[in-house]
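Appendix B, example 12.
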Amino acid sequence: MRELLITRPDDWHVHLRDGAILADTCADMARYFGRMVVMPNLDPPVTTVSAAAAYRQRIVAAMENLPRQVEPLMTLYLTERTSSAEIERAADSGLVHAVKLYPAGATTHSAAGVREIRAVYPVLETMQKLGLPLLIHGEVTSSDIDIFDREKVFIDRHLEPLVAAFPELKVVLEHISTAEAAAFISAQAPHVGATITAHHLLYNRNHLLAGGIRPHYYCLPVLKRDTHQQAVIQAATSGDPRFFLGTDSAPHATADKQSACGCAGCYTAHAAIELYAEAFERAHALDRLEAFAAFHGADFYGLPRNRGQLTLRRDSWTVPERLALGDSELTPLCSGEQLAWNVT
């Protein structure tokens, strides 16, 4: 196949950050996405509807002079102080489309996250009643749990009881990375889904660690062994509508990634759909890319599918070594490498 025409895709999980960086991250997202679910883990986090509205205005302003815009769907950052009244305001706002649960300490800017998940059960009850989805970074943070097991343990300890306690709550387990996560989602009702990143489809922990540490492949959840990668590929390419595209594209300056800080996050917004095309082609499933990228997420959120289309052509190109990031620069995923597919 040399050319593939698909409905305009959406990104159901992206980090744009804030300030001067927005001009660059929004420009990459606006290349072809129709909508983007914007993560709220700023510093300080986006915990109120008013903060989400202000952040949305900054995002829209950053896209003002671009050839095309992408619609930002805002989220709130769940804390143990989040009130049901704030959830009601979110549901009535028309701009907040979900609430994000970060276990405290699990990833970038998660210190204000939830330490005891049962403490937010009253808020989850309100979300269930109002139909507001819960998005979950599904990892435990206990130091005695191996980092490669933290997703599985989270499912066993927290996600299974949560789904049982709130059988009508819309839940998205974000950026799944294990066979256990893929199997869990496959066994759930249609209102429990998962996003899948391009980097968890394309890479495993050998790419991160073999022959030396490659910091630009470091993300959370961390890349797992090949058997888990294959299970996630199978889920993404299965045609199951509970699995859909979420890049988890996360910008970090090159100097921050290549430091003792070890910032977690892969930047993929520069070539998101091209990277997914690589993964789906390797799995002999290019015919299922459109539904995964453009239909499943929209249907899950109860939003109309996009009307526009884009064309992917088999036309190899080289990913830039560096990209602008505000006053700094970042190293994108596949920096300096060739990709087979290009969006026209």
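The longest strand covers residues 309-318. The radius of gyration is 19 Å.
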